[in-house]
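for the writeup, i need someone to sanity check this before i put it in the appendix. the sequnce is what the collaborator sent (i think, or maybe the updated version? ugh). structure was predicted straight from it, no edits. if anything looks off just tell me and ill rerun, i have time this weekend
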Amino acid sequence: MLNPLLRLRHLRCFLETARLGSLSAAAEALHISQPAASKTIRELEEILAVTLFDRSGRRLQLTAAGQVFQSHAGGVIADLERAQQAVLAPQRQRPRLSLGVLPTAATHLVPEAALALRETMPEALIEVMTGPNWLLLSLLREGQLDLVVGRMPPAGNSEGVKFVPLYWEKVVPVVRAGHPLTQRPWQPEDLRHFPLMLPPQGAMITGSVRAWLHSVGITEPEPAFENVSLAFGREVLRQSDTIWFISEGVVRPEVGAGSLAILPLRNELLGGPVGVSRRSDAGEGSGLEQAMLAALSEAAGKTAASLQ
């Protein structure tokens, strides 16, 4: 139990004396007399029943007990100051939106929408989390995310979630600039002669990619890599002849810059809708959420036009 005789003046005087090593210096810092400071320290030592300072030298030194008390007393004063500040000048609560972002929306769609939203609502804080779709959708259902932007959830993982499509996006085979297959017309059979990078199990596009490969006779592909990360995929393609099946939106900046190239593909059905997943019970959402949906819709319109 806290001793009822202990006061803030005891703590302040003790901490200043410990910091300065002198009662006279502490008294001056606290705007009290030296006898008052000396009396305060004596009172504190009587309350605690320990000696806090070694007074044998010219400069006061903390005893072992004094060092222990200092380590806790400083935190007490800091906590009280923060509590006082929180009451007297509470921090303004910023509007906050938590987004889950899948790879296909992370390189272009969401950044463009987020920057546009910041122009109209600069006070808003936009938290972005990336990860596999099963994790993001789970966090969405639990209320830890407000929106998830990316591919439409698979039928078996859409419970409690409603999906608003924004545009259709292809899945494409991508290679480095100058790859042998960019020099001539290619056939699906050519895929057998190069390392493949396919989406891993659990990725939104895995089923459609595997189904397409099966339809062209590659029934049991043996990929060299399974990946949907731009950073990893870009570097592997740069250093090898690997062919990467990935959503076009993930690699759009690199294709536009000319460092990567899309192999022409006749089957335009290798793809799917990109949009926004929300909780089914979310209603209209906050004003910030509605503003983000509008910004995403506008950015999606530009994206869809650039794909035509």
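The radius of gyration is 32 Å. The mean pLDDT is 90.
thx in advance!!
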